[in-house]
Give the backbone structure.
Amino acid sequence: MKELTRAEEQLMQILWRMKKGFIKDLIDKIPEPKPAYNTVSTFIRIMEKKGFVGHTAYGKTHEYYPLISKKEYTKLFMKGLIKNYFSNSFQEMVSFFAKEDKMSISELEKLLQEVKKDLEREKK
């Protein structure tokens, strides 16, 4: 699956929050300066072709909804990030952020505990 552009990702964030909506609904949620109706419509159609968005037709009007969950996209995005920027190493990524954010040992231990809890939940 392809990645979203920045503008497409902004629209997906809105769709994930709304669950579904018409172009005018999406535009209402976009901060100023708001793009033109045709611009948003074009982006949505591109996202449909990429497999991120589906629609229900009501005559000539379409109501759009996400075909991929935010969690699924986050997983795909993070895998690409780790692969492309951290030599496919989760350890390198965590190390990078720990150094950049100057994380303390106790913060790293808390992070490790959270990861362990998540892994235990997934096993169930």
